[in-house]
Amino acid sequence: MPELPDVEHFKRVLVQNGLDRIIKSVVVKDARILGEVSAEAFTAHLRGRRLVAVRRHGKHLLAKLDADGWLTLHFGLSGALEFIQSRDVEPPFTRVRLDLIDDGSLAYTNKRMLGRVGIVEDAASFIAGEKLGPDALDPAFDFPAFQAAAEGVKRDVKSVLMDQEIIAGIGNIYSDEILFQARIAPTTGIAKLSPAQLKQLFLETRKILKTAIECGAGSEQFVERMPRGSLLPERKKGGHCPRCRSPLKIFKVGGRTAYCCPRCQS
Ligand SMILES: [Zn+2]
């Protein structure tokens, strides 16, 4: 499931291949991904335009058009953005394809259709409308800001990390990794953490998201490139703690499957 590091990868795909190139044609293969917008309106808005800037906020990607508005991409549980040189190699589950001038296309794929592609007038009001909290890697979102965001929250720490209104970008996979590295059990109430634990949680959040980006999250074989001692490769049935080799505990938190080490995380 795409989280902040994966979406950062999609951002790079767009920056490297799709910026400042005229969109020759737009192919909507499944209009359900556009929500309320019709395929005709979407196509008319993008055809002949260029994407001139890209930003990511949490798990959302926003690309500015040379005319009015922004293209927004959300990847849900199974979405991705790929650049293809030829339409003949279109990936499976392509829902929207932007064919660029001088060949090449950007393909938005989404197997499970839980995501959204759209056009909005303004990026800032879109982010506000989605009620997104600060991006987890925003330099302005420092430890005091993190502390303030956690203040008075009476829920378990894993749900808080995954709450996009508090901090945008973290999902099920990276919250497990962050809590494992910070040695905090996912069900611990965030209000119960000591100031030192909260600081550790903040530092691990930044470190892990940045490391995942550097290791190429969102691309193939990325898990093998994560540093030794990462939980990620073990995050499966029958997985073991990379630190003490205990069998990992698998359980549900807020409807999501969590993995943790019952010995190392308390
Ligand atoms: Zn352990």
Summarize, please.
The chain has 266 residues and is α+β, with helices and mostly antiparallel strands.
Strand content: 15-25%
The best one-word shape is globular
Q: What ranges have pLDDT less than 50 throughout 5 or more consecutive residues?
A: none
Radius of gyration: 20 Å
Count of extended strands: 10
| Tally of alpha and pi helices | 7
Mean of residue pLDDT values: 95
In the sheet with the most strands, the strands line up as 1-6-7-5
> Which series of helices and strands comes N to C?
HEHEEEEEEEHHHHHEE
User: What distance lies between the first and last C-alpha atoms, to the nearest angstrom?
Assistant: 26 Å
Helical fraction: 25-40%
Listed once per kind, the bound small molecules are: zinc ion
Which structural class matches the secondary elements? alpha+beta
What do these coordinates show?
The protein is an alpha+beta fold and 266 residues long. Helix content is 28%, strand content 22%. The chain has seven helices and ten strands. It has a four-stranded antiparallel β-sheet with strand order 1-6-7-5. A four-stranded antiparallel β-sheet has the order 2-3-4-8, with helices on both faces. Strands 9-10 form a two-stranded antiparallel ribbon. It is globular, with a radius of gyration of 20 Å. The relative contact order is 0.13. The mean pLDDT is 95. Bound molecules: zinc ion (ZN). Zinc ion binds at residues 241, 243-244, 246, 261, 263-264.
